[in-house]
Amino acid sequence: MATLTGLLGRRALRALAVSVLVVSALTAAIYEPYGPLNGHSGIIYDRGWLSYNITLYDDAMEALSLVPRNVSLTVAAQDNLPEVVPRPGGDATIAGCVPLQQADYLVGNVLHAVYFYESSDSGVCNMNMLQAAEEALSSGQFGLLAESGGTFVMERGYRGSVALYRPYSLYVSYRQLTPLSAFIAGKGYIIVTGNGSGPLFMAGGRSMLTLMPGAYRLSIEASASASQGELEVIVYGYTWNYTKVVLANVTLPASELTGHVTVGFIANNFYGLVKVEVIGINLTGSLFIRGLTLTQVAPQGG
Fold first, then answer.
1. Total count of domains within the chain
2. Same domain, 58 and 152
3. Would residue 295 count as lying in a domain?
4. In what order do the strands lie in the sheet with 151-156?
5. Which of 166, 200, 231 is the last residue of a domain?
6. 277: phi then psi, degrees, rounded to nearest 5
7. Exposure of 134 by Cβ count < 10 A (0-12 exposed, 13-18 middle, 19+ buried)?
8. Model's pTM, two decimal places?
9. Contact between residue 172 and residue 218 where contact means Cβ atoms under 8 Å apart
10. pLDDT tens digits, residue range 160-185?
11. CB environment 98-108: b (16+ within 10 A), e (fewer)
12. Which of 35, 40, 194, 228 has the highest Cβ tally under 10 A?
């Protein structure tokens, strides 16, 4: 009898331990500040970012490793980068936000929505990270130490070239495009009809496109049934105070569009809310669009 009771007791303890482990894992995933399911936590979180992309995570960690482990340094880090806020082992910790003029290092990631929000717990006081990065670079007091998978590290007084570079790309599917003229939605594409001159479609309205300084390639997966007319492709971004900056403006004959349109351009600073607009000029016919990819091909000065 004692043996049976002991066996039942061990089974009950084992079941209890497994239950506690499962419940702890689920609550951690849901309620931790930057977990893979923390859309439930009330914090804006792009579920396609670091939690599901180990390459971007590794790129971010490699960039963050360039920040020296020195208690005398002040690091202004974007709120969703807990790897450096605070730094473990008694290293440089962050208590609240940091004024830009007091920061030795500026760390952020342009792929995350938190990049656009001010925080009183971390980052730069009274600035979102787009504004902080833009002003830091424009001031000449900071240099870009790393551009790695959307994560950047800026160091005060740094005058060298980018020491760590890992390119990133952003894909916008046909479902995320905004048609600006008559269109038909198909399986895996949209068809935009052009009749004369005017906007055809735009990317960036429903998806967040952001740029670090460097060279970029825009590739549009599209083909045209038009025998005459032209297509104008415009890429523009916005500074932190919503100043519009045209980064590329290319015109090509619609008859030459047989699968891809490729446009190269340079971003000399940080830009948010980047948009791509395609305009028909004396266009007759249709445009089949599957999506577009924006890829960084070189860092600042590369």
1. 2
2. yes
3. yes
4. 75-77, 105-109, 151-156, 142-148, 164-166
5. 166
6. -125, 135
7. buried
8. 0.77
9. no
10. 999 999 999 888 888 888 877 767 77
11. bebeebbbbbb
12. 194
